[in-house]
Specification:
Length: about 240
């Protein structure tokens, strides 16, 4: 004879209570995961970079920044378009005329490309500095990153020193390693009144870099560039 199972009202209430607690716990966990996901996306998934003009003094001297010759009104900041995903490529895959193909953002498959202008709209000769920073890096993706900067027809490729002896990677200029995140600091001297420079910045992950390994998958990078007439150290110290 089968054993009789007796379910009391107390047992039913306990089961119902447990079910409610379990559902609430799952809901809270789901909300937490969504919040964490959103925070990480906001913090790291930038993909683009911002260029800023340093100070009011730069504007007063006549230094101007803009992204189109059709509108040469000076801007305090410029923002490149976002690139959500970037796989590794070779420098050989970049367009030969990448510095001339467009103004503003002209991203391609797996690289960021941004072109803008700096003009001396004043009456005196100006020296200015361009300074690039890494603000955040995830999973050491900066180990294989490349930054190519065209200043008119002159081009320089920058990269982090190799992990063995810190020497520059082939055909590159090594990143600086300042505490404030500065990786590039260059001066452009003697910009004449009325003269302008065309600057193109290209960013990609170099597949031929020995540090381009599977451990970098999912890595992200956040960076920006400052343009200032003064040396950045003097600018920061308020001199």
């Amino acid at each position: 004879m089968a054993k009789e199972v007796i379910i009391t009202a107390g047992k039913v209430r306990r089961r119902q209570k447990f079910g409610k607690v379990l559902k609430l716990a799952v809901l809270l966990l789901l909300v937490l995961l969504i919040v964490v996901y959103i925070v990480l996306r906001i913090t790291f998934n930038v993909g683009s970079f911002v260029v800023t003009l340093g100070s009011n003094k730069d504007l007063e001297s006549g230094l101007a920044m803009f992204e189109s010759l059709n509108d040469m009104t000076g801007k305090r900041w410029l923002k490149a378009e976002n690139l959500q995903f970037m796989d590794n490529i070779s420098i050989k895959w970049l367009p030969e005329d990448i510095n001339k193909e467009a103004e503003g953002s002209h991203n391609g498959d797996n690289y960021i490309a941004y072109t803008f202008y700096i003009q001396n709209q004043g009456d005196i000769v100006i020296n200015y500095w361009y300074n690039m920073f890494i603000d955040d890096v995830v999973k050491n993706v900066d180990e294989a990153i490349r930054i190519m900067i065209f200043l008119n027809e002159d081009v320089t490729v920058y990269a982090k020193g190799n992990s063995i002896d810190g020497e520059p990677e082939p055909d590159t200029k090594k990143f600086l390693s300042e505490k404030d995140g500065t990786i590039i600091l260059e001066q452009r001297p003697n910009l004449q009144p009325g003269e302008y420079d065309r600057i193109t910045v290209v960013v990609w992950i170099e597949g031929d870099d020995p540090e381009c390994v599977d451990a970098l998958i999912g890595g992200e990078l956040k960076m920006h560039m400052d343009i200032t007439e003064e040396h950045p150290a003097a600018y920061k110290n308020g001199e």
